[in-house]
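SEVERITY: medium
COMPONENT: batch folding queue
REPORTER: lab tech (J.R.)

DESCRIPTION
The queue accepted two submissions in a row. Attaching both inputs and their returned structure tokens so the on-call engineer can compare them side by side.

ATTACHMENT 1
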Amino acid sequence: MTETPERADERQVCTLIADPASRDLDLADIQAVREGLRAAGADVAGHRWLAEHAAADLPYRGITPSTAGEAARRAVRERPLDVAAQPETGRRKAVLVADMDSTIVTGETLDEMAEAVGLKDRIAQITRRAMHGELNFEAALRERVGMLAGLKEADVKATLDRVELSKGARTAIATLNRHGVTCALVSGGFTAIADPVAEWCGFDRVVANRLIIENGALTGAVAEPIVGKEAKLATLRDLAGARGVHESAVASIGDGANDLPMLLAAGLGVAYRAKPSVKAAARFALEHGDLTGLLYLQGYRADEFVARG
């Protein structure tokens, strides 16, 4: 994607998001950000609640989003709040591309599969290095799946019993569905887990790797081509094309190094509880809010949410 130059003359919005369980956003926080934006040269309008004490917007003009974001983060740097600044026009997106492991679900599902053969700690170490970008993702995936040769298909399916959705996942996807957004789950994990997770949440499309199973057990191989960072980015572009929209009308969310290309390509690329290098490179991040923060970033109010567990 060719990045659109930032402008200071159009209407922008700075969004503050707290953990909705704590509802720790107060008027003092909003005032601190207002003063920080003004000190940076912005003309700031009055705030509007998206969800009282959980999320609020501060419209402004006169400075770029990057300048505003830096000023706002400095203003509340000691507070458990997520901050984002962006143009107000085109804020709501037509497409969402979401990672699964450690994003839509709380853990790494391949690591959970490995527990059945006593290799969870060993495989989790490889996973961790791959997600930090220290290892080639495709090679690391082949290595880990190879270590699971002989694992029973029933044990793979049993992993689903331990899969936990991240807070706000079902509400976020149901709300986006209600508003006509195309939602795709694009995972470096496996269809055996991704297909049910997508059904639980209401995703329209699933792109994930496929384990090769013979005689009821894993062979230790994964079907090619592997879904890695290039496939995630290609899926984002394909979905944008199918909807007839620019990549700026796409939202993406993920946590690992293999998610970074799609985070950088999307108009709203959100690093969610992300690895440090990913958070540092992404333009948007959620560290304190749950996955409903993906809705607040697009300007949805809590009374527009489709409430699901």
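ATTACHMENT 2
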Amino acid sequence: MRFALGAVADKAGYGLEAHESLGSTNAEGLLRAEAGVSRPLWIVTSRQTAGHGRRGRAWETPSGNLAASLVVPGVADRPLAAGLGFVAGLALNSAITAVAPRAMARTVLDGYEAPGHRLALKWPNDVLLDGAKLAGVLVEVHSHEEAGLAAVVGIGVNVAAAPKDTSYPATSLAELGSDCTAADLFEALSDSWVGFYAIWNGGRGLPDIRRLWLEQAAGIGAPVAIRHGDDVIRGIFETLDDEGRLVVLTDAGSRRMIAAGEVHFGTAATMR
């Protein structure tokens, strides 16, 4: 499969490394960060054999799906780097809509409504299609002695196939009826990233990114359960705070700001 940058990304000076097969695009991205890259660099592969998601979960990407990582040098600090996950979610939603326009059709998800279309962003790092996981994002940070901090934004999308026997429902663009390829989606993604990254503006535009993300968020106003270690917090998903943390009105009536955890909405959130 031949990958290429979109015209907007190419003009903006982004780099591209395309591989037939890699263990992990994020691992490769961290190596480039260690080498001290001076411009944003995309690393993409037709097949990923040893990828990982949050909390070290395996993320295998068979041929036909998209596995890509973007190395972003010059990040001011680690908390700001986490905000790039929201940038990635917005860019993904925009790119998927561009290459698979039927994804814009209205639907009602499990216990909540998607905001006018079938795609929705799930805090902190997933894109949902009809309530099932379509894509995931993983942001990792590398500190270089001379070049400073670089973020590696890993993105995996189920284009041709979705994993089976998972603890959560998953789906693919092919199941939607889309005939787009991983290369089609990557080209659109590389361009849409440029626009949302400009809004992010080194973190200064985080309030605008937060607002845009909330407009496309899944589960606002619905029951939510967040598992963090052995602790489970239940309540209503109200909003994101200024730092991008989940704001939950708990069953006990207090408000909790959640920085990390495994999130369940709808029916799954009410199960004990």
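NOTES FROM REPORTER
The longest helix spans residues 182-200.
No errors were logged for either attachment.
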